[in-house]
Amino acid sequence: MRLSLNQQIFIGAFLGISGGIFLGGLPQGSSFYAGTLYVCEIVGGIFINLLKMIVIPLVFTSIASGMANLRTHTQIGRIWSTTLVYFLSTSALASLLGLIVVNIFKPGVGLSTSLFEGAMENFSTRHLTFADFLKSFLLSLFVNPVAAMAKGEVMATVVFAFFVGAGLIALGERTQKLHSLLNETFEIIMVIVGWVMRIAPWGVMALLTKLLATQDLSLLSSLAKFIFVVLGSTLFHGLVVLPLILYLLTGKSPFFLLNGIKEALITALSTSSSSATLPVTLRCVQDHLKVDKRIAGFVLPLGATINMDGTALYEAMAALFVANIVGADLNWVQQVVVLFMAVVASVGAPGIPSAGMVTMVMVLQAVGLPVEAIAILLPMDRLLDTFRTAVNVEGDCVGSLVVGHFHTDSGRFRPNSRSTF
Prior knowledge:
2 strands
């Protein structure tokens, strides 16, 4: 009997984890260790590059055609407002959860900074004030769209797609040919996604093998409490908070959600990139969760760029962890500032591996913590990034279901009375 894609991916993930643990116990200078890592880098790299290859055309066509399919400005306004409220609310809730957990368990208290003196001395970063961040973020949105697409800048592509979609709506029937072309291009890209997913089990296995084989376990052991607290909080948000939100707002069960997005979660764990996972996420949400493709095509690409629950939670926790290590006692006002900055930073973080480290500078500076302390977080960031990316992706999937619930009727898209399809 032929195994399903889900079963193949699970087997690949299991073999990758087992192989990574085994490989990590071998001498790093051995030819077998080096040769295996070399093969894993090639196979994993090809898988990620294939996903990245289709991200930009997928984002552009899905948003532009999705907006045109919605037809009226009134309807887009309702869907946009629902989406934005959901994104900001869940990110703030994730940050609040992170702050509560760190205040309860207090990871980092009593941990000597001497363990990380060498790393902190060799680490340098540019101080990034909120004003600098805001200016840089806003200016990055409005750039040459061709250059942005060539560089793989998803957020700028999203903005340009919004303008194109609005133009299609404004011109109506006169743009029918272009509208049809965008829809057909989107369908072609989804076919390509299906082809790419055929090698997903091998890509997942290679990426997980490399990840676990290259972790510095001796250094991670000194940060075990923080790692455990972060993983526990991240999993709690992903397995309890988000499914509970989904159930309360839509009545859909957590099992329906998690069973439908298994492929996307495993891909997110192995790639640590919500942008690279986007093609798989779209496929899961449309095919398994049965969300209308117009809703999914609008919500998911936007969520992959600005909805980062896992990142918001981690940055809030990391800021308090650093404060505990350096002996800074942050009052509740400063912690509210951390919460706000963590949400803002998560919105501005690109959907690429370890992108949160870039915006983490701003969060630390907001409450006067030393930015050099980011060096303490770097050894464990790659491991934690895998789990927070999975939660980021899950949050996008829940968002598409929530938005679809409030803007559909009996599973069918509910158009505005002035709309024609």
